Amino acid sequence: MVRITLQEKLYSRETVEMSLYRIAGKCSGEIRSTPEGWEVELHPLDKGPTDEECAHAFRTELVDQSLREQIGAKTEHVKTLILSNAFSKTTLIPQDECASTPT
Amino acid sequence: MNALLPQLNRAFKPVEEFGTEGRYSLLPFNFSPADSQTRDWYVVANLCGDYAVITRTDLERLVDGRLDPNEDTYRLLRRKQILYDNLTRCTPTLLSAKYRTRAQQLANFTGLFMFVVTLRCNHVCPYCQVSRVSEDRDAFDMTEEMASRAVEFTFKTPSPSVKIEFQGGETMLNFPLIQFIVERAKEENRKWNKNLQFVIATNLSVATGEILDYCAEEDILISTSLDGPADLHNSNRPKRGNNSYELTIEGITRAREKIGFHRVGALMTTTERSLGRVRDIVDTYVEHGFHSIFLRPLSPFGDAVKTRAFDKYDAQKWIEFYKEGVEYILEINRGGYPLTEAYSSIILTKILTNQATRFVNLQSPAGIGIAGIIFNYDGDVYASDEGRMAAERGDKTFRLGNVIANSYEEIMLSDNLLNPLVASLPEAAPMCSECAFLPYCGADPDYHHATQRDFLGHKAFSGFCTKNTEVFRYLIGKIEAGGEDAEIMRAWLR
């Protein structure tokens, strides 16, 4: 078993949970909110990786998940625009504008 | 002359409007490691599957807004519609149009209708996913009444193209019913004028001259099973007399003579015995003049589960088998013999074009029911071939109703269809929704139900996910490496 503490202001609960979900084939985990931040307890599966390998896999996923969260936040608006336009036969979006100016 | 200038000025925006000034916006995209072992290179792909392979550092710079408009990576990502700037302000609108194009076949709804005309069979294959019964039991034949109702059901689809595929058992043991269905379907189609196609899946062992003449007259395609060289085929497909291979090859030859060389196709099934013999299998296809081979994995259904044939090799072993096979197929192509690997062809079409494919197992929403549907020999309707295989083992999760007892609306709005479709949608699933390969992949609720008792399935434990992710990585790697192999693979696009 290995325990990792993360600052809550750096990682959302969703990011931590998704990271655990992604490495479920290697280890199981638990998340607790403590005064120091998120405390994550990792348990390698039987005949699975070592504690260190589990911790490495978790940290790697955590960084990727954090990046995914940033991309999601930055593209949410344009994604909604693209999908609504894709399935719409209306002319809600003025054709001369084509799309919003990059911000 | 001067009087025209204000009008011209209104027609053109100021020069500064066209500069990028280092400002760009991200378009929605997902990323995944480009190989399973390292995190140095990543595949980034937008909603429509336009992709680029970039370094980890560039991925972070991209997200942080630190890419320079003058660098190659910036231009690559702009061209691939991962980012847009003042020069490419129409990109979101273009992506909408592309997304709509990719999704348009959903509106056509079901195009493939499989009729199990009999469950009787003259083979006793241990991996058989249909759980055949002996060939002398008439209780396992579809009746004309069921067939007629199934034909009426078929033509309720809005799809302009309808493919009727005859499945078994050994279909030709009930050939009179095939003739009945072909005639009923053609009669019904006079009202609808759809593009109607027939395929018979058969081992060809009982295909008489009269049967093949009928297929030729009615423009029916033949799909048979060829698992590899004689020893492998006969051990995979045991039959009294141990002559399944000889009968198949003889049947292929006669069928080609009667109905046309390219109207006879073959499919192989991978078993534990096949592993390590992919070159022999490919050689058999070349020897008999085929220009396409489908390196299929064994599915976890029917007798494949009962005999544990499915468990005998895992996803990784199939991936090694598949990669070795594709490398050998490329070598054969380089030698001048055109040969396509069918699974790669389907996936490359998804990766490199904006064209949707009709391959049922790589659809989102899942292809069950809405891409293909199956009428069993007893009139029961299933969402997929795999669903009816599971039913033969007592699991009727994917039974949608009965063609005699239920209406089209009752069957197509059945909870047994809608629940797995909703529960398995990849765009809303953990791991899938953030995977770079999402636009090329799909949902397979019957696979995940069979292996995890869950329509969605946890992808960290999913053989479906492992196999497909590795295939996507491998094919993208081959295309990115360029050269003759990439050119050959581009010729495989559908």
Using only C-alpha atoms, the radius of gyration of chain A works out to 20 Å
The overall average pLDDT of chain B, rounded, is 91
- CATH class value of chain A: Alpha Beta
Structural class of chain A: alpha+beta
Strand order of the largest sheet of chain A: 1-3-2
Proportion of residues in extended strands of chain B: 5-15%
Anisotropy-based shape of chain B? globular
Mean pLDDT of chain A: 88
> Biggest interface, and residues per chain?
A-B, 29 and 34 residues
Low-confidence runs of chain B? none
SS class of chain B:
alpha/beta
* Assembly level: heterodimer
Question: Radius of gyration of chain B from the CA trace?
Answer: 25 Å
Task: Please report the distance between the alpha carbons of the first and last residues of chain B.
Answer: 55 Å
Share in helix of chain B? 40-55%
* Count of runs of 4 or more consecutive helical residues of chain A: 2
How many H/I helices of chain B?
20
Report, as a whole number of angstroms, the end-to-end distance of chain A. Answer: 45 Å
Give start-end ranges of low-pLDDT stretches of chain A: none
List keywords for this structure.
heterodimer, A: Alpha-Beta Plaits, 20% strand, elongated, B: 494 residues, alpha/beta, nine-stranded mixed beta sheet, three-stranded antiparallel beta sheet, 41% helix, 14% strand, globular
Quick structural summary:
The complex is a heterodimer of chains A (103) and B (494). Chain A is an alpha+beta fold and 103 residues long.
What does this molecule look like?
The complex is a heterodimer of chains A (103) and B (494). Chain A is α+β, with helices and mostly antiparallel strands and 103 residues long. Chain A is 45% helix and 20% strand. Chain A is built from two helices and three strands, in the order E-H-E-E-H. In chain A, a hairpin with a 2-residue loop joins strand 2 and strand 3 (37-44). The mean pLDDT of chain A is 88. In chain B, helix 14 crosses helix 19 (463-481). The relative contact order of chain B is 0.10. Chain B is globular and about 75 Å long. With 494 residues, chain B is of the alpha/beta class.
